[in-house]
Here is the input.
Amino acid sequence: MTTSPEDLFWRLAAELERNDPRITEGTIMNGRCLRVGKEFLALVDYKGSGLVVKLPRERVAELIETGVGKPFGPAGKIFKEWLSVPTPDRRRWLQLLREGIEFVGR
Here is the structure.
């Protein structure tokens, strides 16, 4: 059975929340998201985007260049610190979420 992007994301979110009290659920663009304190961290499947996670812009550019993810551009505006990873992959998504926590949690 295939896991939906939403199911995978929220299972990973629960795992991360258990280990880091700074991680909470919030809202962004009329949907659910994860935050680290007051900073946005990630959301899932915004218009088919899979995992969308906030990372340093250099890291986002690297991951796009290597084909790991795609630019995230709701309404046509590309956000240089946000990466879309459409294909659900537990290990990759968890790694990227941890990188995002380190980045936004500074």
Q: What stands out?
A: The first strand starts at residue 23 and ends at 28.
